[in-house]
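Supplementary notes for students who missed Thursday's class. We covered one full example, reproduced here. Read the sequence, then the structure, then the short commentary at the end.
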Amino acid sequence: QVQLVESGGGSVQAGGSLRLSCTASGDIKMVGRMTWFRQAPGKGREGVASINTGSGPTHYADSVKGRFTISRDNAKNTVYLQMNSLKPEDTAMYYCASRRYGSALWDPQEYNYWGQGTQVTVSS
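Structure (token representation):
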């Protein structure tokens, strides 16, 4: 089993920044790709940014490209999401998810482990 714990959410004004963290524990060898998803009230879960274990490319949703940066510290089993130039439409619960294998990058059903989520609220 893998446990994921997110932190770093909060409330900011539009244009501000936040940095989310997600730390994995447990059966670390099962942690491969790590992806941030978000879910706004009344909407489905949306993939935001993704990074694999090694030095492969990072991936971003079009809505956050140029504003969000995902990074990973394998020594700390932690993935980060630096969010800059935040907009009110970024308001959502942000979840960290991981999987060892899979093919569809943004399909939540392909992720085995999920954190409890951290709330991000951006006011105009």
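Commentary. The mean pLDDT is 95. The chain is about 0% helix and 50% strand. If anything here is unclear, bring it to office hours.
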